[in-house]
# Entry
Amino acid sequence: MKNFTKLFFIFAKIGLFTLGGGYAMLPLMEKELVGTYLSKEDFLDVTAVAQSAPGIMAINVAILTGQRLYGVPGAVSAACGAALPSFVIILAVALFFRKFAENPVVVSVFKGIRPAVVALIMVPVFNLAKSAGVTFKTVWLCIAVALAVWLLGISPVYIVLLAVLGALLIDKKERAK
Amino acid sequence: MIYIKLFFTFLKIGLFNFGGGYAMISFLQNEVVYKQAWLSTAEFTDIVAISQVTPGPVGINLATYTGYATSGSVWGAALATLAVCLPSFILLILAGKYVFSTREKYPVVWRALRLVVIGLIASAALTLCNAENFIDYKSVLLGAAAFLAVWKLKRGPIFVLVMSGLLGFLLY
# Structure
């Protein structure tokens, strides 16, 4: 078996056996990759770069690992491996759900699930605010962003662009001093 | 042409989302529910729930399911998934090292992005707080209980979603 096809299956295994994605995947990735494919330092390096890029972190880790080992073909096969199990499973669920969406049991179950989903999204806001060390001096930015998207329907794309440009301007000013 | 629109929408999200799965909800909500009106809030909330409890990266689950739900075809799902991965693929293959070095070169940018991501996730939660998701006082109580279970009792999303589904079955 060609080495990069092996990489495909390793990442497929990682994708298949982790729930929650992102950080939940790191321990299994470490177990599967460190020692056989990457050194410990390489793994830390790969995850750090993966978190600095936009997009989906687990896929970024796959791209970087694949590229480091076997170049672009390695990156493609690792990324496809990481994405394929969830692609297939979620499609199967979607097809199933479409068929049974009108089922009275499914309807009442999802009436209960929806408020809980909102709660699930609310919690990381507070946890992240704590870990990012948000203070009274900086919290206004979080609030302004939340209100702009929630009430004015401004696209998060513009907000990210504006934040990057604004931060670059502040950075330039600080350097000029 | 929905496929072309779908492709560029997810390409945009793949390029600008620096905040992982939860922040991606804010981008998707804005594009798919608010701007294009492809899905209702309730439909979108169901997609978020299912994406949390199926294996694999949440971002892939969200892209695949939203792509499928909006186009009604497997091709839409594949296109959305490909498009959301493409920007970081190109960026990392061509300039992975440089992307990382910006963290040290421009710390202000990264601090700002961290704050923006918190605001984006908050906006996703606030946007979903509407009459489609909170149909009566029972669902408000259920939401509050779920919040406490995750925040204070540190319960995982799967436990909370399964329990709330069970409660939904008993209550409605």
